[in-house]
Amino acid sequence: MNVIEIQSFGAPAVLVPGSRPDPVAGAGELLIRVSASGINRPDVLQRTGNYPVPPGASDIPGLEVAGVVVSGDAAAMASAGFSVGDRVCALVAGGGYAQLCVAPVAQCLPVPKGLTDTEAASLPETFFTVWSNVFDRGRLQAGETLLIQGGTSGIGVTAIQMAKAAGAVVIVTAGSDAKCQACLALGADHAINYKTTDFVAEAKRLTGGAGVNVILDMVAGDYVAREVEALAEDGRLVIIAVQGGVKADFNAGMVLRRRLTITGSTLRPRPVAFKADIAQSLRKTVWPWIESGRIKPVIHSVFGAMDAAGDLPSGAAQAHALMESNQHVGKLVVTW
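Predicted structure:
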């Protein structure tokens, strides 16, 4: 099969076309003929040598795919309601940048009605992540206020729509007025240009001084101290990335007095059973939102996976270069 592999750690140009033996599905797994693969920030970290592959996972990058089931563990597939020929999308621990990909049956979901495989490939990584962190860890409830740092990222556009569908008030930060407008168009109630406005002061103003109930943070570093200030009593800060650094200096007394929770998680190394529970929650609650049109995939650009352009040897390399430019709004996808 054709794949995109990491030739060596470095810039996007290290993502080169290659060939690997066809994988074979094992117990509890199925094999997908991939139509499209989603691009995510962890892929960039893996490419640069900053996100080790979990034990047992493929060294081929890619955490989400969509396509057609070609084979698999018959009993596991039957139990989950899948058959050969079904269109599915899946969250995987690696191996997504390939024409064939093995996925745990429990981490597969049917392609939502009305969506293309390209659209479906943009769903799993961000939808699993947002559900796990905003709803499970952050315990966001209808009527509460969620602050999303980085509203135009793949995570951001997903979190905006899921939180609004769940009845929350959504505030986002973004790095330009144009990106703020894009967030508002997706349903955010308020958008703060963090380059021109203090998000803490503005979040407090927008909440009548009370602060926000939940913050979804991809920055960490010195943002943590400011986020602690922005939280309401019993507020929850959920950290899912550390783009601003791993060290934080914050007012612990405020955490005590206001009964705040600071938590975080990474999804990739978690066991299949953990991800299976998220998949069931998504299928029960979120897939109907997608099929009814309340939530829509937001795809900025689609590239042919193997297509070279200029100095970049593959469409995946082009997608990574665009992601690193931070000029996109929503997801990036490659097709096979």
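Summary: The longest strand covers residues 29-39.
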